[in-house]
Amino acid sequence: MAAAGGSAPAVPAPGAGNTTTAAAPSSNATAAVNPTPIKPDGTNNTKAAAAGAAAAAASADRKPSKPGQAEPGKELESAKVDRTKHPSGIVPTIENIVSTAFLGCRLMLQQIAMRARNSEYNPRRFSAVIIRIKDPKSTALVFASGKMVIMGSKSEPEAEQASKKFEKIVRKTGFSSVSMRDFKIHNVVGCADVKFHINLEDLHMEHGAYSKYEPEMFPGLTYKMRIPDVVLLIFSSGKVVLTKAKKREHVYIAFEKMYPLLEQFRRM
């Protein structure tokens, strides 16, 4: 789900040519989670995790429905929630999963860009080929070192399925020695809406050791939870973005641990 002004590039619009510039996101939400950019050779590609948080945070602070009023269709959805796993009655939606893999050999990016469909490459702006697939809907950043960053998947099985499809695409461009290994999920991004407004100023004052709040720079409060290791972006509207989780379950656990605290600082 994003998520660093110099982090992984935002995926260009569909239909762009092979020389289309891959523009980097400038969302302050990314900076709140991860200020370190991806290195040209992809060695720091775990930092692509922030891209998912940036995308999720960009839409998180939209105008909420009236406090206590569920969005259309949410009443029925809430009735199906397993309260033993989700005591709050709210199940965070997984927006993005960022994973990495190694293709086992060095690659000629220009060759991949010329032969692979739905690919883009502009070495003057970013040293990776961007490849997109529709099923499952995912995007890959393929580096000359053979490292690959996959993002956009909504579940762990989808992320692994997408990585195998990208491996096949690269192999078909003339790299018969490609063999994917070291597949690993680095970041699961989730979003939730508690349906009430939150007093971020008071929350920050009482939990300053774990939170950062600078409304002049970014409208959300950044809360760093230690167990599980998850970063939460909390907005006064009641929207919450959870990032840096390594598993879907960590997103759910972190939200349930945070929910009573959010209720404590509910703005009346």
Polypeptide structure, described:
- With 268 residues, the chain is α+β, with helices and mostly antiparallel strands.
- Strands 2-3-4-5-1-6-10-9-8-7 form a ten-stranded antiparallel β-sheet, with helices on both faces.
- Residues 1-38, 43-51 and 62-78 have low confidence and may be disordered.
- The two termini are 31 Å apart.
- The protein is elongated, with a radius of gyration of 19 Å.
- The protein is built from seven helices and ten strands.
Characteristic terms for this protein:
268 residues, alpha+beta, 10-stranded antiparallel beta sheet, 26% strand, elongated, disordered N terminus
Layout of strands and helices, then pairs:
Blueprint (H helix, E strand, L loop, with lengths): L27 H6 L15 H12 L13 H6 L13 E10 L6 H7 L3 E4 L3 E9 L2 E7 L3 E7 L2 H17 L8 E13 L6 H7 L4 E2 L8 E5 L4 E5 L4 E7 L2 H17 L4
Antiparallel strand pairs: 1-5, 1-6, 2-3, 3-4, 4-5, 6-10, 7-8, 8-9, 9-10
Shape: elongated
**SS-derived structural category:** alpha+beta
Strands ordered across the widest β-sheet: 2-3-4-5-1-6-10-9-8-7
Report how far apart the termini are: 31 Å
- The SSE order reads HHHEHEEEEHEHEEEEH
Largest sheet descriptor: 10 strands, antiparallel
Question: How many runs of DSSP E, i.e. beta strands?
Answer: 10
Mean pLDDT: 80
Tell me roughly what share of residues is in helical segments.
25-40%
Number of helices: 7
Percent of residues in beta strands: 25-35%
Instruction: Pick out the low-confidence regions.
Output: 1-38, 43-51, 62-78
Query: Radius of gyration in whole Å, from Cα?
Result: 19 Å
